[in-house]
Amino acid sequence: MRRFVLLLALFLPVAAAAQDVGTVNFDFDSDVLDAEARAKIAEIAAELTETPSYKPTVVVGYTDAVGSSGYNDQLGLRRARAVAQELVAQGVPVARVGTVESRGERELLVSVTTAERRNRRATVTLDDMLAACRSYRDISITPASIRDELQQDLESRLSEAVSAFAAYQSNGTNGPAFQMAGAAREDCGIATGFEPNALRKTEYAQRCICSSARLRTALSGQ
Fold first, then answer.
1. CA distance 90 to 44
2. In angstroms, rounded to a whole number, what is the distance separating the alpha carbons of residues 104 and 158?
3. How far is CA 136 from the centre of its chain?
4. Looking at domain 19-126, which of 3.50.50.60, 3.30.1330.60, 3.40.50.720, 3.40.50.300 is its CATH number?
5. Is this model's pTM higher than 0.85 or not?
């Protein structure tokens, strides 16, 4: 079974990761936005407002390795909040700014224990929705979200589900991943078939993303 899962991963489309929008750097032990940081946030804000997306915006703050982990967690959060507040000040709707969190010193960009500006940062990304999904109603999509970006994502998820379903079917496997692949194949197939202005496009787009998230979770657990 392990060998089959590895073979399956070879031809399944790679799951979309968070889409990077921009990175803002900070001075040592500071959450103050300098001129360079404000200019960068202005660029990020322009991209977010000019390119609407249904995906939630995630702002994450980081620090270098100097100081205690607890202090750095709080510093990273202050940095993330400073960037999020400036994005709103620059015209990004509050609803577009989703998760604001800190990872402190846990994910150093440069692996050094000394002060390093590149580690003192806050990143802005567009998330790949949910790692897992309890209900399709958890997916935040509105009729205004139905754009080319969403359609392309639905088609990618459909392709992934079709490939997984075919692989499990040919192997004779009838486990949770196979069931999730079947559900994702059906939901995503219906979602991609609707025209953008169809009444049920939004609902089936939500169903597709949710069942696709469940499929990815089932695959990752094997």
1. 9
2. 36
3. 16
4. 3.30.1330.60
5. no
